[in-house]
Amino acid sequence: MKRWTTLSAALLVVAACDTPAPSPDGELVERDSAGVVIAEWSGPIWTSGPRWTIGEPATSIGALESDEPEYLFSGIRGTVALSDGRIVVADGGSNTLRWYDASGVFLMQRGGSGEGPGEFSRLGPIVRTDDDGLVVTDGALHRITRFSSEGELLMTTPIEGVTVPGPAHPLAEGAFVVGAAGFSSTQMTGEEEGLYRASEPLIRIRSEVDAVDTLGIFPGPEIYFRTRSFGGHPFSRGFYYGTAGDRAFVAGAEGFVVDVYAGDGRHLRSIRAPSVDLTLTDELIGAYKDEALRLAAERGERVESSTRSALADMIFPKERPAYGRMVVGDDAIWLEQHSGGVTPTVSRWAVFDHDGAFRGTAEFPAEFRLSTVGDGRVAGSWRDSLGVEYARAYALVETGG
What we know:
Neuraminidase; 2 domains
């Protein structure tokens, strides 16, 4: 069984679009509001043609079957391409980090299940630092673990004050920013049925245990309350954050807005695209219900009946989320178009520079889940029709759209 494929390791160092020119179809208008720069993009976003896509993977790691377990994945939590072309994959099933060379050959492994230094109970996403180090959050043990690019364990730091901690993103000053990635039953406080967002802190953590403080308080991931239960909703708004240099980018999908903060918590800029229509139409709701019933019918009459009842009672918001995910790159912010509650045919992204100018859109196959972007390349996971997971890296390809 083939364990890996590589077309050209050279593709990994092609900087296809590090600093693309602004889109000609709009204008960035800036104004001051009590010391915060409001940067509004006036042109279209999702109606613009894609400017970037991906072709064949430069590196693809994984297999349907193999007698070498390091090439089998179960729940990829993140894929990072290092500056020298090596790939690091976080595998949730084994709670391990795995290093591969640019052609996909296994190099080493760190982690494993446990509570000791360098071990994980619930491996979270991985984030690359400027020096090619790796930062990993453990959502169960509530701690950050940092490794060097060569796999040396550098730091283990506890996380306090966040209900369900998300990834740790580094700031240039040496601190890390951590926010909420989910919700728990402790946040159920008797609200009426419907959508609800609990406020959550975005905290800044330094290497010292006693140096934890709050960057700000923000609306956390949105929860759907039903009688004696809670969970996600097809149109729930998420909470997203990332860093670049000494700035943190925060997005709550309430309107097409991304806020920019300094490492000390000062609100610097608000990036907006007010012309994006977020109306949750009957057509979008109907499409979601049709797909939910189709999938339920495949599981039997009983599941279909209970799904039909749940859909009849479901409460829908007036607006849909402005986007479904955010990935912060070295010089750009990537915002994924919300799926509208149905299985997408493509993954579509709007790309802005760090000051708010729209650069264009990118389209990837729906099977590819983007983890990281930078240096003209993207890395993430691919799930095939059999559900087999692969870690992949691609060079971005300009379409001329």
